[in-house]
Design a protein that fits this description.
Elements lengths: L1 H7 L6 E3 L13 H10 L6 H16 L3 E5 L2 H14 L3 H6 L9 E5 L7 H5 L4 E5 L3 H4 L8 H7 L4 E7 L5 H12 L5 E4 L9 H7 L4 E5 L11 E5 L1 H9 L38 H16 L2 H19 L6 E5 L1 H4 L4 E5 L3 H9 L5 E3 L8 E4 L9 H11 L3
Parallel strand pairs: 1-11, 3-4, 3-5, 5-6, 6-7
Antiparallel strand pairs: 2-8, 7-8, 9-10, 10-12
Helix pairs in contact: 2-12, 3-12, 4-11, 8-9, 13-16
Bound molecules: pyridoxal-5'-phosphate (PLP).
Length: 395
């Protein structure tokens, strides 16, 4: 059916071996998740009450105190930044994104500056960078040091942001230690740090205050979903800035995540009003999270590795290309097939221009490698993928 819908719109279906990329539609959902979304679409519920239920489920799977469903990890980062600046102060909530009147600076280590820093800035926060990139440039051996963080924290500091990846995790404990004593929330961008599913809990175990996960990547939820989880007070302050607040103070019954006693009144629509998560996304994300949290990473990696072997065999000998399967313990996520080639982007361009466009991951193109990432690749596309690569190489 899906194929018919896209064909009817005149939109090409693509073979996606590039991963759960947002621009290619993110993850593919299982039938059970689709069914949960469809069922959710057919009834009216109180979204605050539904988010409270989501919070209980997210807390169970992550070990965080609370969690809400957002419209994506980027939205979760914006809300995390907003909540860190406002806490329960409704005048600050009303002021955002104009945040000059209060602590509005978010510390970000230089090596953590990604395109998603814009999501933090969208709240009105200002990024203040610190530290060196000795390791990244190969100039030296030292990473982030406690004294640098302590020296950077001022009365204007609202939060510390951390873009997690498998190689910088040991720095997180250093950051948490330096920030905790000064009540500076640590916000972790873990959007794409799943699998392994142990990372659902890992960042909280390391002391993060707020963590953003993407719902439409490995979790396999609706594409426009994400999770903001962490400290109950901060998650509550984020939720009240995301909900529809066109409410009568006399009749509004907020979920208990929202602490009325802490607020001087009832805020109007907040900064996050444009990031609403619909009932379908909330229910779909929870259905996907239930499945993801019980899945056996090793078993699913073994299945993926077998498929990559099949693809590699179908590719056969390719002139000028060296193939290698990188196991999950090397990639930090899922097994991938690396194709080392002299001009990777030329091949990628040809594949994308095919009648049925094929996408490989260009993440390591600068190192002369195209990657077959199986995360969003339908098993029925494996053979066509191999065929398309051979054709693009004229073999
Ligand atoms: C994908 C990604 C995001 C954004 O996630 P969405 O759910 O698409 O909003 C943020 N940060 C990183 C590191 C990502 O990879």
């Amino acid at each position: 059916m899906t194929q018919d819908i896209y064909a009817a719109l005149g939109v090409k279906r693509r073979i996606n071996a590039a991963g759960t990329l947002t621009r290619l539609g993110g993850a593919l959902m299982d039938d059970e998740v689709v069914a949960a979304m469809a069922a959710a679409a057919r009834a009216s519920v109180d979204i605050g009450e539904l988010q409270a239920a989501a919070s209980r489920a997210i807390a169970r799977h992550t070990g965080a105190q609370a969690g809400i469903v957002t419209s994506g990890a980027a939205a979760a980062l914006t809300l995390a930044a907003a909540a860190s600046m406002t806490r329960w102060d409704i005048a600050r909530m009303a002021a955002l994104p104009h945040a000059e009147g209060f602590a509005n600076e978010i510390l970000l280590h230089r090596t953590h500056y990604t395109g998603y820093a814009h999501a933090l800035r969208a709240s009105g926060a200002r990024i203040v960078d610190l530290g060196h990139n000795d390791r990244g440039t190969g100039a030296g051996v030292r990473g982030l040091e406690p004294w640098e963080i302590e020296a950077a924290i001022t009365p204007r500091t609202a939060a510390f942001a951390f873009s997690a990846n498998p190689s910088n995790l040991s720095d997180l404990a250093v950051v948490v230690k330096a920030c905790r004593s000064k009540d500076i929330p640590v916000i972790v961008d873990a959007a794409a740090q799943l699998p392994p599913k142990s990372n659902l809990r890992r960042f909280f175990e390391l002391g993060a205050d707020l963590v953003a996960f993407s719902g439409g990547k490995a979790i396999g939820g609706p594409q426009a979903s994400g999770i903001l989880a962490g400290r109950r007070d901060l998650v509550g302050a984020a939720l009240v800035q995301q909900l529809d607040m066109d409410v009568s103070p006399e009749t509004w019954a907020p979920p208990d995540l929202i602490d009325l006693k802490e607020m001087k009144g009832i805020p109007h629509h907040g900064l996050g009003r444009g990031f609403k998560a619909g009932k379908e996304e909330i229910v779909g994300l929870l259905a996907a999270l239930e499945r993801f949290a019980v899945a056996d990473d090793e078993a699913s990696n073994a299945v993926l590795e077998k498929r990559l072997n099949g693809i590699s065999n179908a590719l056969g000998e390719l002139p000028g290309i060296t193939k290698r399967i990188a196991p999950a313990r090397e990639t930090g996520r899922v097994p991938q097939l690396y194709l080392a080639i002299e001009n990777p982007l030329a091949l990628s361009r040809r594949l994308q221009a095919a009648a049925t466009p094929v996408h490989l991951s260009e993440r390591f193109a600068a190192q002369g490698i195209l990657i077959v990432d199986p995360q969003a690749l339908r098993p029925e596309d494996d053979a066509a993928l191999a065929e398309a690569v051979r054709k693009a190489l004229n073999v």
